[in-house]
Each structure stands twice: as structure tokens, then as C-alpha cells.
Amino acid sequence: MSKVRVRFAPSPTGGLHLGGVRTVLFNYLFAKKQDGSFIVRVEDTDQSRYVEGAEKYIFDCLAWCGIAADESVIAGGPYAPYRQSERKDLYRQYAEKLVQDGNAYYAFDTPEEIETMREFLKTTGSGSLQYDHNSRSRMNNSLRLLPEETQALLNSGTPHVIRIKVNANETVQFTDMIRGDITVDTNNVDDKVLLKADGMPTYHLAVVVDDYLMKITHAFRGEEWVPSAPIHILLWKYLFGLHNMPHWAHLPLILKPDGNGKLSKRDGDRLGFPVYAMDWTDPKTGDTTKGFKELGFLPEAFLNMLAMLGWNPGTEQEIFSMDELIQSFSMDRVHTSGAKFDFEKAKWFNHEWIKKLSASTLAPLVTNTLAQKNLQITDNDYLVKVVDLVKERCTLLTDFYEQAGYFFKAPLTLDEAAVKPKWTTEKNNFFEEFIIRIVAAENFDSAAIETIFKELATEKNIKPGELQLPMRIMLVGAKFGPGVFDIATTIGKEQTIARIKTALEIFK
RNA sequence: GCCGCGUUGGUCAAGGGGUUAAGACGCUUCCCUUUCACGGAAGAGUCACGGGUUCGAUUCCCGUACGUGGUACCA
């Protein structure tokens, strides 16, 4: 059996959408499991939609995800170039061959003429408004024109496209690895443009030619391609033979959480969650769309979450590392129906991953997020200790600022309302005495502090519980965080005393 | 409109002719903790509808409804 080769074929038209990343993931998992190759081919055949920087951005996203292409624009490879615009000249010969074999034809119709044809079709009450086996007999193409007429138009340089000739009354059948057999009546498929007037191929021609040339064995793409699959099957049949055709799998869509339809960038803006893998700034408008990365997601969690949207191992395991995914993944366990995106569940995956990863693994990432809030970390060992103490309280990486910030600088404000109403001179005296005792103490570990605290409380005849909350507010500023004595020992004796003194002034 | 694909709790989903129809997220309650989390326990909530086939259908078949995708010289 030949080596498995799969490809992800993005168009550089904007941010990398959730669904796109999942398509990458499934391709990648499948390839790695079979010890195959994962190829990234840039499909930039539509010059009008080309967006500056989008290609680099896509590769940045893949890098963040930890997914490396075996062959690509960047990595190179035996089938270069991997950018379709650079392969432009290749496609024409295949289109011409199709014309010669009678499987395609030249069409000289202007957009206006096609529009007129559709308007006419509407008046006839015909169900189909397509340029197809039926309507083409009325149009300006080499099928209807005399050979001399066609030649004359060609010679005079009249703009034209090449369209596939789909025969009437046939059926096209193919097997989808996820959906099983799909059969389509050719009467419903139109004569799609293969080669545009500018000489660029359309997606339909380009995928088939490149998948053949690049020896792709399995072609995975979104479900939105199912309706045009028959065109591709026909092209394979005409050009390279069905026996060389890759196996197909059409992945289910990721849908909006609320209403209906495919998840889009707009839904993220509207509902307040990211849709792109990383921040994307539109070069034309300058608008930035938030990405999962910048929001504080770990790539491990992002990918894990995506894998579970549309695929399920059939066991109760939900948390998977990339290696585990590669081991467990199989295309036949991918679902047929679309799944609504749930941001809450996405956050849950991130939380699980933050808990799962060690503090030292997390530390560099936390350093970065804190730096973005102008909190510079100089002591990594100290950071690791802090991360270990607070990580189970953080859902997103960005939560570390709030959850760990007070370990690095004293709180700016204290939650006075939580203390003042029940504040007494006895309590004030307790803390003044407490400072004296910890100054004198040899040990400043968590247990020692707790012992001193509780003994003094007993002496003063105050319940320790009534003193712990004020102490927390003194050290943290608010009602959250790990055990107070753990905080005290971590920030150290000096800081602890300083913060208590400051707070005592405020509580007075 | 036409064509394709789909339909298990609010969401992700396991299962698949006979089950008390898993599990997770979210939600509620309780325990732990005089903080917030974590952890633990419990709870509410489901097989779209109508016909078949069958001793028996959530599971198979056919319709309907609904959803979704396509219907571009976009991918």
C-alpha cells in the first residue's frame, strides 16, 4: 500500500477559523497515525480575495498548535511549488486536454449573458437555473458554435473560460469515509467553470490536478464540499482515472451556539468568544479579531476541545494529549452531523489542561501573560511556586494576573467592606501582637504561622475563623486565593508584616 | 425554488431491535473549606413527528417536519 499523504489547503483570505483548525487537526492525526505525510498547500487562485499577510498568519497558527507540515510553502518538498498561484501554467494543459477529449468546452459568455439566461430560465419555471446540459445549448460556447466560429473567437483573443461538460442522465457515485456511499444524478450538476478568463484554475480543477500531482491518498475537507464532489469525481474519471482518486471524507460543520448556521467570525464578536486561532488584524480595515491564543488558551486545550467536536473515541476519556489523539483517532468515528460550538466547554478544557500541566511548564507562559500586564517576572523559581499554588483557580492563562498578581506586589485596594463592619479593637490588638510574635519566630513556614496565629487567637479569646478573613484581605486584598498561611509563607515574613501594618491603618 | 447531507437532554455525546438510554459541559442542592477554587455526593433534564417491518422499535424502512450545506469566472 502506498504511503498515506494528506493535505490541508487553505486560502489566504483572512483569519484561521475554528473549523479550519479542526480540518488541519483531523488531517494531521490521520496522517501521523498511519505514519504518513501532512502537506499544506496554499490555494490562492482567487486574486480578488487575496489578503496580505494571511498566509504567514496561517502558518503562525499551525506553529502555535504544534503542527508542522512535512511539505509546504515553508518546508518545501518534492512537489513544490506548494502555492497554486505559482503553479498557474500547469492547470491550463489539463483543461485543454479535457476540451480535446470532449469532456470540457470553451465558453465565451459574459456575466450579463449568463444573468439573462437565468432570468429566462426563471420564466420557464424550470427548477434549475444552472449553466448545464440543458441551458448550454443556448449559450455562446464551443459546443454550440461551429468549429470555425470558436477558432475565430479564440484567435481574436475573446475572453473565455473552460467549463466541464457534465452529461445528462448519469449518476456519479462515491464513497465517503464518514458518510458512506453518496449518489448524485448528473442532471443536477452544472457545467462548472474549470479555468477562469484570467487563466487561473478554479478550486475544482486545481484540487484535482494538485491532489493527483502531489499523490494525495486521502482528501479531507469540510462538509460544504459535498455538493461539488461530483465535479471532482468526474474530473478524476476524465483526467487521471478513478483508481488513482484519493479517499474522501467530508467533515461535519461547526455551528453557531445559538441560532442556526455555520459558525462565523461575526458570531464570535456578537456572543463574546473567539473564532480564530490567533489574533487576526485585517490589513485593510485595521480591525483586530480576538484569537484563542491571546485570550489565554493553551494550544493543548484548544486542539483537545476541537478534536472532541465532531469526533469521539467511544470511551469516557475526554482529555487527550496530541500523542493520545494520534493513537485513538479514526475517521470512522467522526460524526455525520454538525456540532454547535460551546465556549463554556472550551474553557473547561483549558481549565483541565492548566491543572494537568506542571507549574514549571506553565511558568514561561504565565511570565508572558503577566508581562503583557506590565508585571515583569525576575525570579522563576518563585513564579513556579506561585503558579503551583494558584493554577487550579485559573481557567485561562490570563486569569493568572488576578490570581497571582498579589504575590508580586501588595494589593492596591482592600475589600474593606468585608472587614470593617465586624472590626474591633480586640482584633486590632490581635494583629499588632501577631506581628510581634512572628517577628520573634524562628520558622516562617505555613504550619508555624498557623500555630502562632491559633495560639494567639485562643489567648485573646477570639475564634480563629473570625480573624482569617481579615488576614486574607490584608494579604490578598480580596476574598479569594489559596490558604492564608500558604500565602504568608510564600510572600515572606517582611511582606506579610508590611501588608498587615498597612491594612491596620486602613481598618482603624 | 432545486439538489445534497443530517436529526439521542440546553450543549457535546455513548449506545444501537428487548438497557434503570453511559459520560462530560452548564444548571440546582449538599459536603469539604469561616475565602475563591479543587475535590466529593446528589438532583432536574432526552431518543423530532407519523406510518410501516417485527413478538418487540430510540435503534431497520418509508414519509413529514425541522436543521444545515450547495446552487459564483469564492474557496
Polypeptide structure, described:
With 508 residues, this protein is mainly alpha-helical. The chain folds into 4 domains: 5-76 and 209-256, Rossmann fold (3-Layer(aba) Sandwich), CATH 3.40.50.620; 87-205, Glutamyl-tRNA Synthetase, domain 3 (Alpha-Beta Complex); 358-406, Helicase, Ruva Protein, domain 3 (Orthogonal Bundle), CATH 1.10.8; 416-507, Arc Repressor Mutant, subunit A, CATH 1.10.10.350. The chain contains 20 helices and 13 strands. The strands form 6 sheets. The protein has a 3-stranded antiparallel sheet with strand order 3-4-7. The chain has a two-stranded parallel sheet with strand order 1-2. Helix 17 (446-460) crosses helix 19. The chain starts with a strand and ends with a helix. The mean pLDDT is 95. The structure holds one RNA strand of 75 nucleotides.
Mean pLDDT: 95
- Spatial shape: elongated
Measured by DSSP, the beta-strand proportion falls in: 5-15%
Radius of gyration: 32 Å
- Whole-number tally of structural domains: 4
Task: Tell me the total number of β-strands.
Answer: 13
In CATH's first tier, which class of the largest domain applies? Alpha Beta
Computed structural class = mainly alpha
Biggest sheet character: 3 strands, antiparallel
Tell me what the CATH architecture of the largest domain is: 3-Layer(aba) Sandwich
Cα-to-Cα separation, first versus last residue: 81 Å
| CATH topology call of the largest domain | Rossmann fold
Number of helices, counting only DSSP H or I runs of 4 residues or more: 20
Q: Any idea what the CATH superfamily of the largest domain is called?
A: HUPs
Low-confidence stretches: none
